[in-house]
Amino acid sequence: MHEEEVLRGDRFEFGKNWSKFLSVLTDNHITKAEQSLKKMLEVEDLADKRFLDIGSGSGLFSLAARKLGAYVHSFDYDPHSVACTCELRRRYFPDDDSWTIEEGSVLNTDYLKFLGAFDVVYSWGVLHHTGQMWHALNNAQMPVSTGGKLFIAIYNDMGSQSVRWRWIKRTYNQLPRSLQAPFAAAVTAPSEIKSLLRSLIAIRPLEYLPHGATTAKQGV
Predict the structure, then answer these.
(1) In the chain, pLDDT over 70 holds for what percent of residues?
(2) 112, 138, 153 - which closes a domain
(3) Less crowded by CB within 10 Å, the N or C end of the chain?
């Protein structure tokens, strides 16, 4: 199903981008991910807790949860993301029975019921990408155990700006691969030019460089 949706232009292959991220992953990234989980969940560790990562992506936060002592179950709809998560387990927790990884969809209600209950259900920046956000949100809360925590992030509705970006993303996915890069460059050019001009007017041209790097990473 995932491959068919990609071919139709209905879905972006996030997993391929996460594969690139793994090539630059550092211990500092992992430490920051651990700190983020501890801060947002208000804990010092996750020892003996069951942690469900819905849409594991690169697998970074599954890894962070495992390093904090949790029993982790990761799943993603994108097979490339599943492969990334498996790669992180291979690097840091080879042959670990306390970290399971599967290909699955948050829209599959039967699958979520089958997984059982978790102390922490985590889904960061994922559910709005399903195309059925409210269904995904409803399913995401199902595995949360009594007294457990649901830890999610979704896009804000920014009105006309959100409408514009929805059109941009749909158009990008539906274009032939040979036209995707030129289209992305054309879409980002106006904001990049504004940022460059602001830094030049302020006589601080080097300030543009970190901005450009950040924008490029967000668009990858």
Answers:
(1) 82
(2) 153
(3) N
